[in-house]
Specification:
Shape: elongated
Helix content: 40-55%
Strand order of the largest sheet: 1-2-3
Order of helices and strands: HHHHHHHEEEHHHHHH
Structural class: mainly alpha
Radius of gyration: 25 Å
Largest sheet: 3 strands, antiparallel
Distance between the termini: 44 Å
Number of strands: 3
Strand content: under 5%
Length: about 290
């Protein structure tokens, strides 16, 4: 397929495929080539670039090409344009002219039976201590992965409470018991420099939080903290019929994010008049982004 490109533009395509795109799936590489080949044909036939190098292409050429069809037709080529900008001198930032496709918020929730099984596992007395406290903080108290990673030993307060950001959370009795088991395990098995509550094999010699991937890849049994948290939010909305203010108070979500979750899970968006307009804006706009906060 590279032979379809203008001769002066083939070399950079081959170099990109042999370096930055070498390990990509064949279907991904083919999708990239089809997208760029159509742009290459446009440059040759309908622009002043003609058969010249890629470095002659400008943002105006990209805009003109996208105006003739789908505005997302060059999305597969974004990495190639970024690669050219980094590796080849004098190349214009063509990737900046590409519109980003909308990102829809798609909740990740566990089946109810699976959530119950995990809860029973983590509240048992013989549960792995680290796995249990991390899982329960997400499943019961809706903590985000970053919030758990950033917890310090100093954030553990008396009487089954923890400090999360600017809030103090009263842990439920099963979670408080799991925290006590974890603290006993940590005191017995860890004597390193880390001030963080959760430690891993990789972080034990340093004063830094555990890695973002460690929870899902090494600690939890094939689930993510985000999925646990969103499962808990779903149960709060559907099982207890929490309204927007109750949901925001328990989960520390913003009112805008609470509106997005209420819409996603079919809850009741009851708001005081002073925040109703803001919540409507959130439902129409914030749901197009990543996980609401």
């Amino acid at each position: 397929m590279v032979a379809r490109f203008s001769p002066l533009r083939r070399a950079w395509i081959r170099e990109f495929l042999d370096t930055a795109y070498l390990r990509r799936a064949a279907s991904t590489r083919a999708n990239l080539l089809r997208s760029l080949a159509r742009f290459d044909a446009f440059l040759s036939a309908e622009s002043d670039v003609g058969a010249g190098q890629w470095s002659l292409a400008t943002v105006e050429h990209v805009d003109a090409y996208l105006s003739k069809g789908s505005r997302f037709s060059l999305q597969p080529g974004r990495m190639f344009f970024r690669w050219m900008r980094r590796r080849k001198g004098g190349v214009r930032p063509l990737h900046g002219a590409l519109p980003r496709p909308p990102r829809l918020f798609r909740p990740r929730v566990l089946p109810l039976d699976e959530a119950r099984r995990l809860y029973a596992r983590w509240t048992s007395s013989d549960a792995p201590a680290t796995e249990a406290i991390v899982g329960l903080l997400g499943l019961v108290h809706c903590l985000r992965p970053g919030e758990i990673r950033q917890l310090l030993m100093a954030d553990v307060l008396p009487d089954g409470r923890i400090r999360v950001g600017g809030s103090v959370i009263d842990l439920t009795l099963p979670v408080a018991a799991a925290l006590e088991r974890y603290l006993r395990w940590r005191a017995e098995w860890y004597d390193g420099p880390s001030r963080y509550l959760v430690v891993s094999r990789a972080s034990r010699l340093h004063d830094r939080p555990v890695s973002a991937n460690w929870f899902t890849i090494d600690l939890l049994p094939g689930v993510s903290v985000a999925a646990l948290r969103q499962t808990a939010i779903q149960r709060l909305i559907q099982g207890t019929e929490s309204d927007g203010l109750q949901l925001a108070a328990y989960t520390r979500l913003s009112l805008d994010a609470s509106s997005v979750y209420l819409r996603a899970f079919g809850g009741r968006a009851r708001w005081p008049p002073s925040v109703q307009a803001s919540s409507d804006d959130a439902v129409n706009g914030a749901a197009r982004g990543a996980e609401p906060r």
